[in-house]
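MOLECULE: protein
FOLLOWS: sequence and fold
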Amino acid sequence: MPSLSPDSAIEIPHGDRHGPPGLTMADGSVPDGVTVFVTDIPAVTKLKPALLDALRKAAKDAEEVGIQFVVNSGWRSAEHQERMLRDAVSKYGSKEEAARWVATAEKSLHVSGDAVDLGPAKATTWLAKHGAEYGLCRIYGNEPWHFELRPKAVRNGCPLPYADPTQDPRMRR
């Protein structure tokens, strides 16, 4: 996992914030500075309603202590996801290594609107500490920016994160 100070920007290894060249916001690319409160960016508006509601509640509370959630990636089109995967295979040298960072379109929870990648580090640190109160959990140890909705976490706390997506049974189906 990257070593980050609370104020540092989070560098997403697969570079998905703006997406692969040639894709647009309609594919899920995200301009700089987008928050969970925007109402006109598909990467945010196409998140599942329960996830978006939990994110907005958490973000509102985080803002009370001076922390803003920035969406680096949310919903993505299948084309966006597949291009990210091809880029990751090229970068990491194999499908197996790329799978530690990027799922196929068929398995990606970003394509279904069930996952969000947030920044900066101060926000993800806050959410890792308080997210269970909203049902928001960090799922992968190697992706401190990746959060998903786990409603039972409100009562039971978040489950331990998988080391990386290759350990997640949902990615092996």
The domain at 25-171 is CATH 3.30.1380.10 (Muramoyl-pentapeptide Carboxypeptidase; domain 2). The first strand starts at residue 70 and ends at 73. The first helix runs from residue 42 to 45. The mean pLDDT is 91.
